Amino acid sequence: xxxxxxxxxxxxxxxxxxxxxxxxxxxxxxxxxxxxxxxxxxxxxxxxxxxxxxxxxxxxxxxxxxxxxxxxxxxxxxxxxxxxxxxxxxxxxxxxxxxxxxxxxxxxxxxxxxxxxxxxxxx
DNA sequence: GCATTGACGAAGG
DNA sequence: CCCTTCGCCAATG
Length: 123
What we know:
Layout: H1 17-27, E1 35-36, H2 37-44, H3 50-59, E2 72-73, H4 90-97, E3 102-103, E4 106-107, H5 110-113, H6 117-120
Parallel strand pairs: 1-2
Antiparallel strand pairs: 3-4
Helix pairs in contact: 1-3, 2-3
The protein binds a DNA duplex through residues 4-6, 18, 36-38, 41, 46-58, 60, 69, 72-76, 79-84.
């Protein structure tokens, strides 16, 4: 699990395990909850590279079904990636529809709705 | 093949 | 408390 693309650089760079793992976790985030890149990275064992999670999300735009990336924000609860959506406001709208409260591009009560995969999915 | 960048995060000043 | 720097790994120029 969580193998790097280098490890499987056979000639089919489509088996991005790391990316798929990220998508899988993100899709399991319950409605009305949110998590951070670092939390996912921590769950995947690459906590020192939370940036890779964000990088994975960048490619998530082509995945089917679409990954609810709006539920993934930075450790501050800020919608840093909203600019990568179809529209800069789409991310916030989706979250608000799920019952979350966004204030100044930041999720209110983020510490309460925070969903930690390493804890909730804790195996 | 080296330098820069990036949807992050923790630490230091 | 705000801002800067460093680390991490992969992709891109």
